[in-house]
Design a protein that fits this description.
homodimer; alpha/beta; Cobalt-precorrin-4 Transmethylase, domain 1; Rossmann fold; 3 domains; four-stranded parallel β-sheet; 10 helices; about 40% helix
């Protein structure tokens, strides 16, 4: 049984950076927490917990110590609260997300109505949106953008993991909404590149294993695009979920992983697959 | 024979304003010239000539007197030359065109590479383009925009008579060309509204008469869209070109006119048509 691992499987730049910052803080010790899960990987969150780094949903109970800002970022209000409480802040917000937050802030201050292309329920989007000081709208598609009211100057940014096609459709609709449209393309192509590679793999494999948190939107989407090409696609979080029966008659297994999947979990899966292949 | 005149036939706001300014200057007398034809109407140019207002292609031969800047605008260099020569300047540039020129200038100064959506040979576009101090490209379609090189910050404006669809297609392509795209929608909807009205008329008439200069792009386009719906469409400049044979069996004539067609020419056509209808 041949096992092919996608070149871009696992951590993207921002996740890698955030995880490193969190583990370094854990090594230092002291009262340390992350505000929200540091990345969308229950296993990384669990490992940090074992190292003494707790997980807080908000800052109401914390009066001193160190707070780590997760890769998706937090809202402007949460960051302000941390500053006000004089907590030690380790800001592990992905630099690409930070850029989107800054564009929203400056567009808003310059009098633009802001449109954020993304999923309104996603913490990254909630963080980005919070930096607007004027009107701000979240739209998931060109169709939704078509429902927006007439605006003055329109500023547009995107959730970093959005598809380029979606951004294009929103921009097209917004051209009819105001006299000036200013678009910052804040999409990070790591997601698109990973998906393209996974699709290529799904086309030549008999079975695909997609590894990553069930709460990770990019991993779920990755599994979906593979499944469209290869119904024998399985989304797992850890090696323990692998089932021998999936591999009956399989000669080529493709493996990829979401942006928040640590290498050690990918390695465990590969090892287990090798053992299964020898059975 | 019923004659229906389109509500928006003839002069648009910018042309009306420019013509008025030119005739007022003519009334005042003195050594007065227009730099390029004041509007794309040979009849208006001829009338001004009869009133003593000459037509210059460039300023090389003029050392004093009054120069009238046409509705389409001129290049930044031509305007500078007029200022340097201390000529009296009457700037009849359409305010919408002026806006596009100003946007190009400020985008350029702010470090944007500028894309102008329009016809590179049109004097309006040549004027707009001249205000760029950095890189500037003219594209006629989304397809052409796709050929542009990768840029830094991209600023986009459109020739005022472009179709909105064309602007959208260019913007879509440019989203792939740079990290920031700033679009000023400089399209004046007079052209679109006029075309829509003409199409409506062409659908219910047996014959369409489109009046306007053969050198007027908007009139030519107006005749084209009518002809697509009604092959019995005729583009004329003056009443003298009307032919009785066009109206055999015709019961309903639609009449419209381009943005640079003066009312007196439209009136003459209507009068002649009435006479022909009585034959």
């Amino acid at each position: 049984m041949e096992i092919i691992l996608a070149k871009r499987a696992g951590f993207c730049f921002g996740v890698k950076r955030a995880t490193q910052m969190a583990f370094e803080a854990a090594d230092k010790g002291g009262e340390t927490f992350t505000l929200g899960p540091i990345i969308h990987s229950p296993q990384v969150v669990q490992k940090l917990k074992e190292m003494g780094v707790g997980l807080l949903d908000d800052l109401s109970t914390l009066d001193n110590g160190t707070i780590i800002i997760r890769s998706h970022g937090v809202t402007a209000e949460e960051l302000e609260e941390a500053v006000r409480k004089q907590l030690e802040i380790i800001d592990a917000t992905c630099p690409f997300v930070k850029k989107a937050q800054e564009h929203v802030k400056s567009l808003s201050q310059a009098g633009y109505d802001v449109v954020v292309v993304g999923d309104a329920d996603h913490p990254e989007v909630q963080g980005i949106v919070s930096y607007a000081t004027g009107k701000v709208y979240v739209v998931g598609s060109g169709e939704e953008a078509g429902q927006l009211p007439r605006m003055g100057k329109v500023g547009i940014v995107a959730q970093t993991t959005q598809s380029f096609e979606n951004l294009k459709n929103v921009v097209k609709e917004c051209l009819m909404k105001g006299g000036e449209i200013r678009v910052f393309n804040t999409i990070c192509d790591a997601t698109a590149v990973r998906q393209e590679e996974a699709k290529e793999l799904a086309r030549k494999a008999d079975c695909m294993i997609v590894i990553g948190g069930f709460n990770s939107a990019n991993t779920r989407r990755l599994a979906e695009v593979c499944k469209e090409l290869l119904p024998k696609t399985h989304h797992i979080e850890t090696a323990a979920e692998l089932k021998q029966e999936w591999f009956t008659g399989v000669t080529k297994i493709g493996v990829t992983a979401g942006a928040s999947t640590p290498m050690w979990i990918i390695d465990e899966v590969i090892e287990r697959l090798k053992l299964m292949g020898n059975d």
